[in-house]
Amino acid sequence: MQNSQISPIPLNEGEVGRCYRVMNVNATGVIRQRMLDMGLVPGVCLTVMRFAPLGDPIEIRINRFFMSLRREEARFVLVLPVGSCPRPRHGRFRRFFHGGSFGGRR
């Protein structure tokens, strides 16, 4: 068996429907802070959902939400392909939004 190392690729080179793990965010300044605030942090799994018709922007799914990045921004995110992404757990906070402890109308 040959021991081959898989090297990280920029997110803008990812394939639609493939799952990746974020290794590093090399952006700087306001763009980096926005990515980190939105949950694009090292270690998180994401799925490339689709590319716009002209290739820009890229839509990704992180946990339970979708995020769009420009190709220029996505090239600063280094990712590794993984076998499968964990499925988001729907209904986890259902009681809070549907008549749970926060009250409101039912």
Explain this structure.
The protein is of the alpha+beta class and 106 residues long. The chain has a single domain (9-84), classed as SH3 type barrels. 16% of the residues lie in helices and 29% in strands. The protein contains 3 helices and 6 strands. The protein has helices at 29-37, 71-74, 94-97; strands at 9-10, 19-25, 45-51, 58-62, 65-69, 77-81. It has a 6-stranded antiparallel sheet. A hairpin with a 6-residue loop joins strand 3 and strand 4 (58-62). It is globular, with a radius of gyration of 17 Å. It starts with 8 loop residues before the first strand and ends in a 9-residue tail after the last helix. The model is unreliable at 93-97 (pLDDT under 50).
Q: Report the strand count.
A: 6
CATH topology: SH3 type barrels
Within the largest sheet, what's the order of strands? 1-6-2-3-4-5
Secondary-structure class: alpha+beta
Helix content: 10-25%
Structurally, the number of domains stands at: 1
Radius of gyration: 17 Å
Uncertain spans, ≥5 residues at pLDDT below 50?
93-97
Residue share in β-strands: 25-35%
Tally of DSSP helical segments: 3
Round the mean pLDDT to the nearest integer and report it.
Answer: 80
- Specify the CATH architecture: Roll
* Head-to-tail CA distance between termini: 61 Å
What can be said about the biggest beta sheet?
6 strands, antiparallel
Order of helices and strands: EEHEEEHEH
Question: Which key terms come to mind for this protein?
Answer:
single chain, 106 residues, alpha+beta, 3 helices, 6 strands, 16% helix, 29% strand
